[in-house]
Sequence to fold (70 residues):
Amino acid sequence: MHPLHLKRFYNEPVWEEFHTKTKEAVEREGAVYLDASHWVPDELLFDDHLHLSKAGRIKFSHLLGEYLRQ
Fold:
């Protein structure tokens, strides 16, 4: 997630509560909840506040691959 978007919206207490409840619901069903919202902290790797640039997509895909390999 774009750093500005994280700061403005997702670092608020209400979103932490939402995150916790969502994670609990996912795990209750036996799935793994992956929070990758902080994986790309460099705003230069975004085309806008919602979409990663090509370089950002490559970085994110690499990190996801590493996570899945573990």
About this structure: Residues 26 and 33 are 6 Å apart (CA to CA). Residues 3-69 form one domain. The chain has a mean pLDDT of 92.
